[in-house]
Amino acid sequence: MIPWPARSRPRWTRWAAAHVPQRGLYLGSTWTPSRGFGIFCSTAPSRAASFATHHRRGVGAGAQEAGDAVARIRNIGIVAHIDAGKTTTTERMLFYSGVTKRVGDVDSGTTTTDFMKEEADRGITIQSAAVSLQWKSCDINLIDTPGHVDFTVEVERAMRVVDGVVALFDASAGVQAQSYTVLQQSRKFQVPLLAFVNKMDKYNADFQMSVASIRDKLQVEPLLLQLPLHGEDGSFAGVVDVLAQTACRFGGQNGSEVQRTNLDEASGADGQRASSPSGGTGAVAHELPHVVRAMRSARHDVVAQLTAVDDTLSEQFIEQLDATDGDEAEAERRLSTWALQAAVRRCVVHPPHGRPPLLPVLCGASRRDQGVQPLLDAITCYLPSPADRHPTGLTRDGIPVALPPASAARTVSTVALAFKVTHAVHPLKGQRLPLVFLRVYSGMITPRAQLANHSRGQTEVVEKLYVMHANQPVEVPCLAAGQIGAAFLTHTYTGDTLFAHPSQHLLQAKARVKKGEVKEEVYTLEGIDAPPAVISFSIEAATRNQVELLKDALAELTREDPSLRVSENEQGTMVVSGMGELHLEIIMSRLSNEYQVKCRLLRAIIEYRETLRTTQAVEKHVGFFNELPYAECSLEMRPLLEDGERCGPNDHCRFRMDNAFVASYLAGYQQQQQQQQRGGMSSGGRANDVRNAKEELRVISTTFQSAVDACMRLGPLAGLPMHGVEVVLTSFRKTAGSVLQGKSLSHVARSVLLDMLRATRKDDLALLEPMMEVEVHLSEPTYIGNVVSSLNEHKALTVDVQEDGRSVKAIVAMRNTLHYTMELRKAVKGHANLFMKLHHYQVLEEKTVISRILKNLGITE
Ligand SMILES: Nc1nc2c(ncn2[C@@H]2O[C@H](COP(=O)(O)OP(=O)(O)OP(=O)(O)O)[C@@H](O)[C@H]2O)c(=O)[nH]1
Ligand SMILES: [Mg+2]
After folding, report:
1. In this predicted structure, what is the pLDDT of residue 311?
2. What region holds the Tr-type G domain (predicted)?
3. What beta strand segments (E) does 782-830 contain?
4. Is the CATH number 3.30.70.240 carried by domain 768-857?
């Protein structure tokens, strides 16, 4: 649920079209729980007024205006490793664009986007939060995401709906573990990127090292659009804009005044002299010649990188070469800032094929109010609008199809994706209801619209529409293509697609088929995947009265957070599974603070598994149905263990048919039919026979696969789920009837599999334990020894200190990682970040541990 802070009660703002520009008055109406609706006016273009103007562009606007409005939208995500400064940068963006009147601070818990109590208390982001601002005639919708690995689903769903990403890096650390992960997520959705090397003010900041690590670790070609500018004492003093050939310094209240010095004209052709200010306030006496030289060299590199991939810029460069009699330096100088910026935009929005993508790199220090305005300029200038993106949809058969370009025209079908759910008190109904965040891809959603949820086969009626400003909803008259907003919806979950078709015209998209392109109906958009949980605990309500409250609260929380799972085991104990200790710690805190539920986590549940050590076979087993022999089959159960001791996390139990068996089954079918033909019986043709045989094989395969799924849930050794087993069908023959029936065959498949499992000797089985990959990153490398010894104390299987000397990777049994986060923090005095994920399952050999597990499961040897 959205935890409304005590100091700012929910204020639902409803905007009438009431902007009176001549007199500078902005009118609106608000709803507060205590006072109801009221009209107010302001002399400043407040945040809500700007929303109103922005959203009015969609309503009743002509096609041209609506198209322009889409082109002016920038839906942007800010991603990075934990603590890189995403929230601090967002806070500066809100301030410079006039949305906030003061700059909030992460360390004192006063930022706009970290509004949850848990976020303010810990100084970290837990949930992604959306804010909107206007910058240079663009409407920027910004999603500030968390950097901690436990909240990775928040990044995943933000990446799914944004059109561009700003990736932040800590200038003293370069690419860190989670920066790599979040960038992989953005690549998955092919979202164009900008890089911002933050914290340039730190004593150990190293711009060149950061750029090198971006190049090496992310396999991109950095495009240095800025260089850091240092003061006489060596401290960070601003940025050099390589394309515009200016030096930018930031002064005034919180760096809100940008002073630009032209480096090109004033420095003269020899690059020796100083410069005079151009634009901005405050004059800068001179720039050092080495700054000018560095800028020229960087500009030369940028031109070379861009002309290598962009034909338009190459042509412009050749024209300049002709005009300057082949003087390359002069031709480069004559390329306008605008031409270079346009080329950067083309390369970012449509990355060149067959070579590493170009990644524009900017730098700054948000906490020192340096470099954020140029970053906003770069967002508007280089990142795509919804009109530049070509999202894909899926047909009813799951075939990917390209959606038509984003259009808000009334004749176009409306399609939107629900990417996040929170709970809030409905302003009119007074009840807590799911508030669903939507990204509109096509058409327009208006109040009272009826939307079909194809993902769930339900229909929803939208009442009112909102744009969220962190935890403050602002009512808007519509949500048009390209926009991000929210509505109270009952049946919609994260990842669901909502549709409305004008006059029953289905949304058509182009699908590529062998003979060209055909129009296909778009049925859903691609959903949002939740990562598998890595840690489970049993949870118990403090009193009997609290049990139902706990269940209801967990139901709400799982709806909000798809990476949280709640289940009940065979003993009726409730089990919560999540992405790590911090994730579950936050859930417990929310249960107590938001839901006032008293409960506690009991034991950690280690997800042990069972597996097979040696191949088991059954020959010509006759399966019965209704006491009559139905089919005769031969099966093998084969272990998927590597080196007899480990298997991957995705080596789930599976079924397949032996290739030789499939070939002989098809051949046998044909032979049988030929014999029947010779005996004078009609078979309907050879092609038909093969089709029937293939259909039978399909039925056999799906039936055996579901039998494997069902039978392997309880292993024969300790009743634990089985993992890493492959069941192979080596022969099959029907002994009764002519048509294979799924139900009868399923009975046979299950009984033969259960017989095989029961007959397996204990020595041929083993317990598997989950092994975690633990990654520790240190901000202070002196603690590396403490980390290595603490990992060894926790019986790590392997410990590798990484090349950078400040991170360690280790493989540790999950049972030894419980509470490790807290212990590690103490050992290194808070200078470490720890990330864990399931690495593999390992055969458990320690007799004492095995007997303890069996005892805990109520099995005595
Ligand atoms: N020295 C320095 N510190 C900074 C800068 N930007 C942010 N910080 C500090 O870095 C810490 C983390 O900042 P956040 O803005 O919370 O970082 P984040 O990336 O949002 O962190 P998560 O959301 O928790 O992943 C805070 O203590 C900030 O004050 C900067 O430019 N220079
Ligand atoms: Mg943050």
Report:
1. 93
2. 71-387
3. 798-801, 807-813
4. yes
pLDDT band at 468 (very low <50, low <70, confident <90, very high): confident
Query: What residue spans in the chain does CATH classification 2.40.30.10 cover?
Result: 392-507+520-525
The protein residue whose alpha carbon is closest to atom 14 in ligand 1 is: 85
Ligand 1 contact, 125 CB (< 6 A): yes
Of residues 619 and 824, more confidently modeled: 619
Minimum CA distance residue for ligand 1 atom 21:
83
User: Can you give the pTM of this predicted structure?
Assistant: 0.74
Q: Which fold has domain 535-605?
A: Alpha-Beta Plaits (3.30.70)
CA of 190 to the centre of ligand 2 (A): 23
Q: Which atom of ligand 1 lies at the shortest distance from residue 88's CA?
A: 15
Long-range CB pairs of 559-563 (<8 Å, 24+ gap) are 559/421, 559/423, 559/434, 559/493, 559/494, 560/1, 560/420, 560/421, 560/422, 560/423, 561/153, 561/587, 562/153, 562/494, 562/495, 562/528, 562/530, 563/151, 563/152, 563/153, 563/530, 563/531, 563/533
What is the number of the ligand 1 atom nearest to the C-alpha of 105? 29
- Cβ of 122 below 6 Å from ligand 1: no
pLDDT band at 285 (very low <50, low <70, confident <90, very high): very low
Q: What is the pLDDT of residue 164?
A: 95
First to last CA, the chain: 48
Give pLDDT tens digits for 510-528: 544 444 454 566 777 888 8
Place of tokens 């090198």: 212
Closest protein CA for atom 7 of ligand 1: 85
Q: Which ligand has an atom closest to residue 151 CA?
A: 1
- Spatial separation of the C-alpha atoms in residues 553 and 690, rounded to whole Å: 55
Q: Which pLDDT value is given to residue 466?
A: 92
Query: Would you say how long the chain is, in residues?
Result: 861
Least confident stretch, 415-429, 626-640, 721-735, 830-844: 830-844
Please work out, in degrees rounded to the nearest 5, the angle formed at the alpha carbon of residue 203 by the alpha carbons of 198 and 208: 55
CA of 103 to the centre of ligand 2 (A): 15
Cβ(201) to ligand 1 under 6 A?
A: yes
Range 151-170 average pLDDT: 92
- For the domain with range 64-262+354-382, which CATH number is right: 3.40.50.1010, 3.30.70.3270, 3.40.50.1820, 3.40.50.300? 3.40.50.300
Ligand nearest to the CA of 110: 1
Q: Is the distance from the beta carbon of residue 88 to the nearest atom of ligand 1 less than 6 Å? A: yes
CA 155–ligand 2 middle distance (angstroms): 12
Instruction: Judge contact between 220 and 113, C-beta under 8 A.
Output: no
User: Could you tell me if the CB of 84 is within 6 A of ligand 1?
Assistant: yes
Q: How far is the CA of 94 from the centre of ligand 1 (A)?
A: 16
Average of per-residue pLDDT across 121-147: 91
Can you point out the beta strands (E) in 177-235?
A: 193-198, 221-224, 226-230
**Class of CATH domain 392-507+520-525:** mainly beta
Query: Which residue's CA is minimally distant from atom 13 of ligand 1?
Result: 85
**What pLDDT was estimated at residue 632?**
86
